[in-house]
Amino acid sequence: MLHYLDDYEEEVYPLLEVRGEKARKGLQEMFDVEGINARVTGVGSLFQIHFPFEKEVVLDSPQAINQKTDIEKREVEFRLRMLNHGVHVMHGGGGLSLAHSDEDIGRIIEAARQATKEMGRP
Predict the structure, then answer these.
(1) 35-90 pLDDT per residue, tens
(2) φ, ψ for residue 86, nearest 5 deg
(3) Residue 110 phi/psi, 5° resolution?
(4) How many other CB atoms are there within 10 angstroms of residue 52's CB atom?
C-alpha cells in the first residue's frame, strides 16, 4: 500500500484533500443552518468537530481547542451518539480514505446532525 501511495501521490492526495474539504464544509454548513454551536477543523482528509463554550470563538491552536471547547462533550457524548447512528469517530472526527464515497460523507453529516440535535435535548 505504501508503494501505491508513493507511486500515485499526485492522484491520491489531491483526491483525499477534496474529500476532506467536502466533509469539513458540509459539516460546518449543516451546523450553521441548524444553529448548532460547533466548529469543524482539519486538513487533508482529516476532520474534527469541536463544541466551543462561546460563539464566534477562534480555534487556531491546540491550546485554544483545549481551553475554549468542551472536550468531554466531544469525547464522550458526541462520540457515543455518533456510534448510535452508525459512524465511529475518534476525538470528534476522523479521516477519509479512497474507499469513502460521497454517500459516505453524506451519512457522516447526517449522523452528526442527528447526534448534535439529540445532545441539545434536556
Answers:
(1) 999 999 999 999 999 999 999 899 999 999 999 999 998 889 999 999 999 999 98
(2) 85, 15
(3) -65, -40
(4) 17
Phi, psi of 33 (to 5 degrees): -65, -40
Q: 41 to each of 23, 65, 77, 102, 121, how far by Cα in Å? A: 10, 10, 19, 19, 25
Does the pLDDT at position 115 exceed 90? yes
Domains annotated for the chain, with CATH where assigned, are 2-119 (3.90.1150.10)
How is residue 31 written as a grid cell? 451546523
**Residue whose entry in the numeric block shows the C-alpha cell 445532545:** 119
Cα separations in angstroms, 14 against 10, 98, 103, 113: 7, 11, 19, 27
Cα–Cα distance, 36 to 30 (Å, whole number): 8
d(Cα 11, Cα 109) in Å, to the nearest integer? Answer: 25
